[in-house]
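Protocol step 4 of 5: obtain the predicted structure for the target chain.
Materials: sequence only (see below). No template structures provided, no constraints applied. The aim of this step is simply to have a reference model before the mutagenesis design in step 5. Sequence pasted as it appears in the construct record:
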Amino acid sequence: MTSNEARHGGTSRMEAFRARIGGFAFGGDYNPEQWDRSVWDEDVALMRRAGVNLVTLGVFAWASLEPEPGRFTFAWMDEALDLLHAHGISVDLATPTAAPPVWLTDGHPEVHPVMEDGEVFGFGNRLHFDPTSPRYREHAARITTALAERYADHPAVAMWHISNEYGPVPYTPQSAVAFRDWLRRRYGTLEALNDAWYTRFWSQVYTSWDQVNPPEIPRSWSNPTRRLDYKRFVSDALLECYVMERDIVRAHRSDLPILTNYMRFYRHADYWRWAREQDAVALDIYPNPGHDDAFVSAAVNYDLMRSLRDEPWILMEQAASSVSQWQVNNVKRPGHLRLGSYQAIAHGADSVLFFQWRASRGGHERFHSAMLPHSGTGARSWQEVEALGTELPRIAEAVGATSRADVALLFDWNAWWGLTETHGLPRNDFDYPALVTDHYRPLLEAQHAVDMVNFDSDLSGYRVLVIPNAYLVDDRFTAEVSRFVHAGGTLVCSYFSGVVDARNQVRQPAYPGAFRALVGGYVDEYWPARENETFDVEFADGSTARADFWQDSIHPETATVLASYASGQLAGRPAILDNAVGAGRVVYVGTRLEADAFRDTLLGAVADAGVRPLLAGAPACVEATRRSTAEADYLFLLNHSETDPAEVPLPGAGQDLLTGKDATDPIVLAPLGVAVVRTASADAP
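Step 4 output (structure tokens):
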């Protein structure tokens, strides 16, 4: 099956799923095996009351489904599925393979992953399996087959959920064997491997495949490309486990969507590769309620999820209030559950799902909030859950609506791994997700729509491309960026980009090798800032700004200088370049500007490219997105201020689906307020 066939198959399955649900999916993880049967009837009654239409069943139920090897106890699952179906609640049925039972790990200790420091990741948590273990895969296939045979045609099942939050990284003898096989497929010969890894340095040349092992922690440093390839290998090994279980389920029924759930900014799995193998993208995300700007990082993740398949996605897990994994677990203050849920929908989610339905009495997550908390229906958080479930059907017509953007922002796992996982750089404290978020924030606050792209993306539909600190870029992406700019696109590129190729080898003859012609200059030295060092930058109009963290020592060739260093050892030297290339333009920022100056530089380039925000004149606390169908556009407006109402100009007349009233211009959003304004489609004939 080609990736295109898989893509269209997944789209049609999701269309059928949305039609079955009849609107936005609302619900969460349900774990009836943790409760006496007498509780179940209360559960389904309260689910109906709250508007729940989908629950995820069986995620961590392996021991309850298979208490001994090959002995299955399905009676409780039969009853739970029948009960949910009788009350009109659909099921996202999970394979339970994220948490192997103790009989498997005790009977076959080789199933355990070994961590990079050589310690065994033991039983008592979850994800305690080596994805390369043949024994683990054998038992995962058996339980998956048994579930698929029994429940593929059960009328309650609307979707399949494979495992959960894939993530373990193994350093075992069996992972070494699998790594060698992966390298043989990638490079073909040992000579090609030695060349790619530049093993002549430090006399690391391999003369036999058996000598190649995972990059265990050495006494000092290790080969950077070996580490990079191991990141790629682990992502592929985890994906193989997903595909194995997916194919078992698909063989028993082909018309239901199959997916697994991702995690926010998770570095061990390249979700661009994974998304090709799923019928939809799904995300588990827990923005920290203790951080006032957590919604910015959330928005980046949401736009990434939407962009992975350029389709609506599934919000699989969020918290009703507090979580349990941080040092201090703050509650979601009143109004934030609703606001955060609509934020996900605004960025393309077709669901609002939680972990979990009923709060657990014991276990690690006993204080993790739930739709139904320990204090029951008298709790504030329950009342907010119930109110949201009652309100969501008002916007049901927007389910499946899509989004488009003129601005693209690079987020690629290879760029991430190269920058943060391989060491030996001019400075080794880069935080790639934070860097991407810093480039995204000004666009969000200015109400610009943003797509995320990777090295394999087609850039032809965009007008602006933003590249945050892409130290590693491959040849295909380099050529695509060049075509994009020559054809009239605007590129805004930050320092330490285009430095090495896909093999993590420095491009010749000078930095930034991949983008030198586009930037219109070269860098002879990288100057990471000393501790607490700052420097002034002066723009051509005479305005000044502060910068820190990094300086490029730039030599212009064809570019003009937009700003220069005004203090420090590089005073008088260029800090920002502007280069005309073909029909397009490149702005290269060779330092870390203070936030306001970077915002003005980025948004100035976006405006010069002719890209206009969704709203003109809206305050920065207002988030605006648009989703569209053939019949209508849906403008989502969210006020992130807890204290101040926001007056928002509207681009045209419409109706606020949440209130049922005409939306007048301007519309006023209460603190933490939301509006969903329907207008006629701009593309309608």
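Step 4 remarks: The chain has three domains: 3-170+232-395, 407-608, 622-680. The first strand starts at residue 25 and ends at 30.
Proceed to step 5.
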